[in-house]
Amino acid sequence: MSITILGIESSCDDTSASVIKDGFLLSNVTANQDVHKAYGGVVPELASRAHQQNIIPVVDQAMKQANVSKKDITAIAFTRGPGLLGSLLVGTSFAKSFSLAMDIPLVEVNHLQGHILAHFIKEYEKENRLPEFPFLCLLVSGGHTQLVVIKNHLEMGVIGQTIDDAAGEAFDKCAKVIGLSYPGGPLIDKNAKVGNKDAFSFSKPRIKDLDYSFSGLKTSFLYFIRDSIKENPDFIKENMMDLCASIQHTIVEILMDKLEKAVKQTGIKKIAIAGGVSANSGLQNAMKDRAVKYGWDIFIPDFKFTTDNAAMIAITGYYKYLNKEFASQDIAPLARFPF
Questions:
Q1: What pTM, to 2 d.p., does this model score?
Q2: Is residue 223 part of a domain?
Q3: Domain that holds residue 33
């Protein structure tokens, strides 16, 4: 019998719904919230209100595009956390109500696990090259930076993570310092493509083992810009492309240094990247360079599966359904939800 999963993602400011049937994607619809750009970051109260407005239309469109009805849904999967509590409450409440109304299983999903399992979303008329177990994943998003060993679809272990800011936060905060709008990471990437990565050098943190740190880099970049502007008020304008290229190169090299160390320690050469920052061209190019240099077998997700989306929640829900991992109606969302 076919298994059709409806996935709901509402961890931050994107409301998303997706339908996956037997591991194949049928639809993936996302409503973005542009209102936050005016504030330079996501405003939790505005985000949760927008989710309430968007969730019904988004689910309706996802089911129409998938050409399925409510009666065709085998189970509903939703993001339990981590994320903004108000936003998570909207998705959780909808999923619980849908599950109760249709008398189908409810499946909770860890948002971070979803990012990793996005690599297992299959699409019709595509090659669908999936990672083999075990593999290493560098999970890099706005709020998380982790090195994870994936033993199977549902068994994962964190072997390294940031002790302060995440890589995505470093991108956005450095972008803000030089006057770029939110979200700044994609704008840094765009400018970096025509800049000189060796124009400026920034110190890398010395953190033991496989953990990361980006707060010191962010602070040193702020002081560097402040001091440079004192000498030349037009410094940013005259050096925008090179500044973007240099800071992006530094962040990527910090990420790759630890990843190389993790490969040596584990002996695993199947490497994946996941999360919003995995869309960064500098990081993708660095992965491809290492693949040639060290013989890594790399997996880079399609852009549509890098940002927050419900397809990754639905595919995780699919594997949890196969394992009969169901949630009860008294489940509550979690702002902090480690593996």
A1: 0.95
A2: yes
A3: 4-127+305-322
